Amino acid sequence: MTELPCASDQRLTTTRAHFGLSQREAAHLLGTTQTRINHAEIGRRPLPYAADQRLRALHALVLAAPAGPPAPTPDEADDLGPAIGRLADCRYAAARLAHRLAQVLPARAAPARQRLGAATAVPAALAPAADPLPPQRLGAQQAQWALLLSQARQELLGTSGRAPTLLAQARLAGLRAEAAVLAAALEA
Questions:
Q1: 85-129 pLDDT per residue, tens
Q2: Which strand (E) or helix (H) includes residue 175?
């Protein structure tokens, strides 16, 4: 015996959307299975009588709900702790980052730039013609200078140069913007 098709149950779809329920959650609330919920939504089979009665009661709540977004619940309105904590975190991180940009990064970048600026002059200055170093010591001195230049390049490229400074400025702007939005929302 084949079943006759039935209309999809828009009440079920509307009620699930209103309360943010999955088919499984709706099935538990209505006392039926997820398969029956699915079949009712696509119009394959109607809900069992008891489930339909529960759906009518829930759907009446949907119809009685005021239009627009719901007001915050009392628990939600009172629990601003996470937002206040995040605001404090943003302000603290922004202050640290501003200090890093104003003081730490320039102080670290200056010697690195000085080393790189003197890359060719230092070896000549360290090897006076009147008292030349033995070849082994000269090689060690040149290797040490090459290492210092490499460290200076790494410092500028990875920590305190132009690109890292720009990225830190972007993070700072983001933290300040987030703090401003949180502060305005908490004052409202």
A1: 999 999 999 999 999 999 999 998 999 888 888 887 887 777 766
A2: helix 162-187
Residue 105's nearest CA partner among 163, 26, 53, 56 is: 163
pLDDT tens digits, one per residue of 22-69 = 999 999 999 999 999 999 999 899 999 999 999 999 999 988 888 888
CA distance 169 to 107: 16
> Can you tell me the distance from the alpha carbon of 183 to that of 151, in angstroms, rounded to the nearest whole number?
42
Query: How many helices (DSSP H) and strands (DSSP E) are in the chain?
Result: 10, 0
| pTM: predicted TM-score of the whole model, two decimal places | 0.55
Q: Given CA atoms 102, 105, 95, 97 in this order, what sign does their dihedral have?
A: positive
Chain-centre distance for alpha carbon 114: 38
Instruction: Using alpha carbons, list the distances in angstroms from residue 182 to 25, 64, 71, 81, 93.
Output: 34, 33, 19, 12, 15
